[in-house]
Structures are given as structure tokens and as C-alpha cells.
Design brief:
Helix content: 25-40%
CATH topology of the largest domain: Pnp Oxidase, Chain A
Number of strands: 7
CATH class of the largest domain: Mainly Beta
Structural class: alpha+beta
Shape: globular
Number of domains: 2
CATH superfamily of the largest domain: Electron Transport, Fmn-binding Protein, Chain A
CATH architecture of the largest domain: Roll
Strand content: 25-35%
Number of helices: 8
């Protein structure tokens, strides 16, 4: 029986063709006017990082549309808001600055991918520039873009992510408080749910 465990790129190419045409041509080394316009509409992205040992983490980032800014063609500024203080992403970046960003716009099936290197900034004036409701950003991630391209719509079309009839009933799944109580063995579900709801009101920014 043939070994189906793929360990080399040449084995991959036995199954997948070489990229060609616009799949290759669309990759830019900068943010053109279309990329910057997409950023201005986007309220959400996924930030991928890794530590020096290659252990990878992906973290959601979200705020008002245009929360990530492109002050020039090679830079993305991404504010950081209050969270769980684990510092999974930021801790990785200070040790290993390579990052990948995937930006989304509700209702759009295309996404924008930005790969490059990042640094964590905490200048008061810059954090204040990204203030919301009078609360400055905790820090600001400056991403130096190296590879930029739009990703086609197939994943969103297959998943029907934005389709109303594809939405799941949230009541069919345990509350976050219930999940935390089960996983941590610390606290009661109702108390944790109440605490989570209160934090949403007071610690969003």
C-alpha cells in the first residue's frame, strides 16, 4: 500500500498543479489602493504568529471598520485592546516577528492576506491616536508588509459563512460560562456568565 503521508513538496505536486496566471501575478509587495480600501471596510482579522520553536498561534482581532490603518503602502497599524493578558500573539512577536494577517469584511467572500514582520509599539501618542470611548490602545502593532494579496471566495462560498439560513442557534451550544466551569473546574456557570457579560460592558476598550 502506498504511503499517503506527505513529507516533501514534490509529493504535494503529485496531487496539486503548479500555481499559474493570476494566482501568481496577484501577489504584491505593498498595499495598493484596493487593499487599503478593503482595510478601511474591515472590522475583523485573524493574526497568526509563531514562537522561535515554530509553535503557531492564531488570534482574532476586531473593532470598528477601519480599525487597522495603512499609513503608507508598506505598513499596517493594528491597535491592541484589553483581553485575557495571556499575550500569546504579542509575546510571540517580540521573540519572532514574522506574522500573517487575514482581513475580512462582513458580507464579502474575498479576504485580504498580509504577510510580513511586526513590532509592538507603546508610544503614548500613537496609542492615544487609536483611542475608542476615551480609552487608548494598550499597544499598537506595526506590520511591515512583504506579501499582500486577495484570497478568492471559495472557502466562504463553501461554508456559506454569511448566509442567514446557515447561522446556528447559539442556544444549541453551552454558554461560555458553562464551558469555562467544565474545563477549569473553577466557578459556577451562572456566575461566570454574569461576570463575562459585565466584562463585555466595561472592558471592551
Amino acid at each position: 500500500m502506498p504511503d499517503d503521508h506527505v513529507t516533501t513538496e514534490s509529493q504535494l505536486r503529485e496531487t496539486y498543479k503548479q500555481p499559474a496566471g493570476n494566482s501568481v501575478k496577484k501577489e504584491l509587495d505593498h498595499l495598493d489602493e484596493h487593499c487599503r480600501a478593503f482595510l478601511a471596510l474591515s472590522p475583523f482579522c485573524v493574526l497568526a504568529t509563531s514562537d522561535p520553536e515554530g509553535r503557531v498561534d492564531a488570534s482574532p482581532r476586531g473593532d470598528h471598520p477601519g480599525f487597522a490603518e495603512a499609513p503608507d503602502e508598506y505598513t499596517v497599524l493594528l491597535p491592541d485592546r484589553p483581553g485575557n493578558n495571556r499575550l500569546d500573539s504579542l509575546g510571540n512577536i517580540v521573540e519572532h516577528p514574522e506574522v500573517g494577517l487575514l482581513f475580512m469584511v462582513p458580507g464579502f467572500n474575498e479576504t485580504l492576506r498580509v504577510n510580513g514582520t511586526a513590532e509592538v509599539l507603546r508610544e503614548p501618542a500613537l496609542c492615544e491616536r487609536f483611542a475608542v470611548n476615551g480609552k487608548p490602545a494598550r499597544s499598537v502593532l506595526r506590520v511591515h508588509a512583504r506579501e499582500v494579496f486577495f484570497h478568492c471566495a471559495k472557502a466562504f462560498l463553501r461554508s456559506r459563512l454569511w448566509e442567514a439560513d446557515a447561522q446556528q442557534d447559539r442556544k444549541s451550544f453551552p454558554t461560555f460560562g458553562t464551558i469555562l466551569a467544565d474545563q477549569t473546574k473553577d466557578g459556577e456557570p451562572a456566575e461566570l456568565d454574569a461576570y463575562i457579560e459585565q466584562r463585555k460592558k466595561t472592558h471592551m476598550w
